[in-house]
Specification:
about 270 residues; mainly beta; six-stranded mixed beta sheet; globular
Length: about 270
Amino acid sequence: MKKSLLTLAAVAAFSVANAQETYNYFDPADCDADGWLWLDTQEKLDKYCGFTDEYKIILSGAQYEDAEGQYADCELDGTIQGYDKAGEQGGAGSWTGGIITPMAKSYGSQNGGGIILSLPDLAEFSVAMSSESRIRQMVLMGSKQPGVAERIDMGIVAGFAFPFTSLTSDCQYTWTNLQNQKNQNTGLTLASPIGEHVTAGLFNDMTTDVLIQGIKVFTYTNTNEGAAVDGIEADENVPVEYYNLQGMKVKGDEPGIYVRRQGAKASKVIVK
């Protein structure tokens, strides 16, 4: 009996010694006690969200032209009232503030707006969101190869893909541990050990706007250590960079819509 207890103690000590420490991807001072970054102020939205990779949350606009020939962008609103589970805006238990991701053209078209995160590795990824209609489906994308975003487990993520499983029957949903979702064909997940870069994306596949109101991301690499960010020089001598609507850096010489960045200035341009 004593030998068994000693063995169990040794195993427990070994497990603790080999446990990998994780870090909040966002500044812990901006997060709650559980590590959630709630996008409930304009300051936090402006600090973390933008259309280029200088931001920790890269915004991606809709991938189709609306009736006016425009590509809808994500909007940032620190005061907007979210929806409760029944779909009442500002109802009991609703959250305040968030990223307004534009709707998809139709259910299953996978061309709505969303967010992208370029991460050094990934231990945990969870998102809190709401919409005026029940959140049946969102598109989860991911890649461990630069420039590639592979869909993760379409059967769970998209309600119109086999086996036609709705994400939730509620209008408010906290989707936890997205890193464990698995591509049903390739087995790919977003979970990544220390030092294995991963790109993660979550996109609106609804025909109503979806508010991303909270996000929780933990990595094995500490990205906040000495992370004071200096202002970026906005000068005509700074090289011009182009990004596609997924936030990836490109040459910008092919026909399409790009984000043009020069120093601190960013604007959307159309190349014909």
